[in-house]
Design goal:
single chain, mainly alpha, 3-stranded mixed beta sheet, 6 helices, 3 strands, globular
């Protein structure tokens, strides 16, 4: 097959009933987060996060990016099959620990086995999205979050800017 793809770009489409259902779930989720009420997580948000992780892993494989995945205990318990598949596929999967309670954005983060990740790396993806470029020290890794699918454009831009060498087109 020729390495050529046609993209059809129409106006975004979401059915009225689908938008209302998703909107109500997101409002309830938002209120629960603001009131610090545990337990409610819309399936759509979980599915988006899972789909995003799968796409990122495929993109990383295509680019030859070595992928290290830090997974919290709660995510591991909820998605044990996925974690098992990631390990079987050869990804470096580590336990990820937050010490302290949300919403503190600066609570301590650890990985087992340990990684050298200082606090300025913890929000690398958000900083990148906001135009701030963080200088990494030797051994530090840029951190991107699987649980933030809205960052896909920024991740692809990051890969493109950091690792891609454009091929000159011949006229």
């Amino acid at each position: 097959m020729e390495k050529k793809v046609l993209f059809d770009w129409d106006q975004p489409y979401v059915s009225g009933s689908g938008a209302i259902k998703k909107g109500i779930k997101l409002i309830i989720y938002g209120v629960a987060k603001v009131l610090n009420l545990p337990g409610f997580m819309p399936k759509e948000i979980v599915r988006e996060s899972d789909d995003y992780a799968e796409v990122i892993l495929k993109i990383n494989d295509m680019y030859g990016v070595e992928t290290v995945i830090g997974i919290t205990d709660s995510v591991k318990e909820a998605r044990m099959d996925t974690v098992t598949k990631m390990i079987a596929a050869g990804y470096d999967v580590r336990r990820h620990i937050h010490i302290g309670e949300p919403p503190d954005p600066n609570r301590q983060r650890l990985w087992e086995p340990p990684l050298h990740q200082l606090p300025h790396t913890w929000h690398y993806d958000e900083d990148y999205r906001n135009g701030k470029r963080i200088e990494l020290e030797p051994g530090e890794l840029p951190i991107w979050h699987f649980d933030r699918p809205h960052g896909i454009k920024d991740y692809i831009n990051f890969l493109y800017n950091e690792f891609y060498t454009p091929v000159k087109k011949v006229d």
